[in-house]
Amino acid sequence: MLRRLLKGIHFPLVFSVLGLAAVGLLFIYSASFRDAGDYEAKQLFWIILGLVVLIGVPFIGYRSFLSISFLFYILTLILLVLVDFFGNRHLGAQRWLEFGPVAIQPSEFAKLGALLAVVNFLGSHHPWEGQTKTVSIAVLLLAIPFFLIVKQPDLGTALLFIPMSIVMLYLWGVRKRFLVGVFGALALAVPVTWGFLKGYQKKRLLVFLDPNLDPLGSGYTALQAKIAVGSGGLWGKGYLSGTQSQLHFVPEHHTDFIFCVIGEEWGFLGSLLVLCLYGFLFHSIFLIMQHTTDVKAKMLCGGVLALFAAHILINVGMTFGLMPIAGVPLPLVSYGGSSFLMNCMALGLVLSVYRERSIF
Q1: In the 8-state DSSP scheme, what is residue 87?
Q2: Residues 6+ apart with CB under 8 A from 81
Q3: Which strands make up the sheet holding 93-99, listed edge to edge?
């Protein structure tokens, strides 16, 4: 029984999660030990709960989650609507629902809900049977949570739906002309979207091009983030010794900008170590995706991989000034219960794909 249990666990993926969670806990403490928030203790609770989810989900099986995917999808939409009426506002955005001492971010679970619903829908239709109608419905399923999240406003999280949807459609077998059409529509939508952006969002994009336009306002975070990472050099200043982060020059340094703390205290080599852990995680997901013959499982793994890759690209990119500041956390590392639980649930579904193939 023990051998059968261990056979269904993909240890490289689990070790990657444990490594990233440990790094996250270390630097959440480093970023906040001078404060009174006890963020590291709270994060430890979410890590333990997340690991239970990570190991537990494979025993339920991804097929069971797909069977209730539309129910889960509708539940996440209801939560997104409730945020608009009862959500807690923070830094100009209304993204959280409070249930007593616990606050959840529905947009995190909406990503997984949309992923499961689209995988289940596309996987139930053959790509050679009326692609126009099938793709249109799939895009609609993604568009509803997309616009509800944009309304919060949380443009950064909403944009994560785009690479996730493209990868799922590609793995499903969509015709190339549809993908070309998607990219063309996105390109044409850029100038139109500008008129719908809020003032602070326009300012973020302009400051991304030139942070010195508003060095003490919108450009402040971008400039301080680059200073923090650059000051770390090759080896870093040492754990708990980062001046930019410890003196709070970098805002939100325990959440969205935790990579600044890593870069400043562990330097280039420490940052490279964290990115290698992500690379190891990506490789594990890719291998599991490559060795399954179930199209739903393949789309599920590909969607999760695209979601994680986009998260890291945006988060690390905005730290180095290569991406606009979008308020996207670093998966498994940044402080946040909703994010950690969603990531563990998504990776648990990937482990479920591996477990099914290994045991059966």
Answers
A1: P
A2: 148
A3: 88-90, 93-99, 102-104
Band the pLDDT of 83: cuts 50, 70, 90.
Answer: confident
Q: Where are the domains of the chain?
A: 9-359
Task: Specify whether the CB–CB gap between 63 and 354 falls below 8 A.
Answer: no
Residue carrying structure tokens 């219960």: 337
Is the Cβ–Cβ distance between 23 and 277 less than 8 Å?
yes
Residue 19 has pLDDT above 80, yes or no: yes
SS3 79: helix
Q: Indicate the SS3 state at residue 299.
A: helix
* Pairwise CA distance, residues 294 & 303, whole Å: 14
pLDDT of 175 higher than 90: no
How confident is the model at residue 57, as a pLDDT? Answer: 93
- Residue 356 pLDDT: 81
Phi/psi at 320 (nearest 5 deg)? Answer: -90, 0
- Inter-residue contact 344 to 50 (CB < 8 Å): yes
What's at 77, amino acid-wise? L
Is residue 80 within 8 A of residue 110, CB to CB? The reply is yes
Give Cα separations from 240 to 245, 262, 265, 277 (angstroms): 9, 10, 7, 22
**For the stretch 96-122, what's the b/e string if a residue is b when 16 or more beta carbons lie within 10 angstroms of its beta carbon?**
bbeeeeebbbbbbbbbbbbbbbbbbbb
pLDDT in tens, 141-172: 998 999 888 887 777 888 899 899 999 999 99
Q: Is 189 exposed, middle or buried (0-12, 13-18, 19+ CB in 10 A)?
A: exposed
250 vs 244: CA distance, rounded Å: 6
Supply the Cα-derived Rg of the chain in whole angstroms: 20
Phi, psi of 333 (to 5 degrees): -115, -50
DSSP letter string over 26-54?
Answer: HHHHHHHTTSSS-HHHHHHHHHHHHHHHH
What does each C-alpha distance from 247 to 155, 231, 329, 353 come to in angstroms? 29, 14, 21, 45
Kindly state the tokens that stand for 262.
């890593």
Answer for the pair 340, 10: CB distance below 8 angstroms, yes or no: no
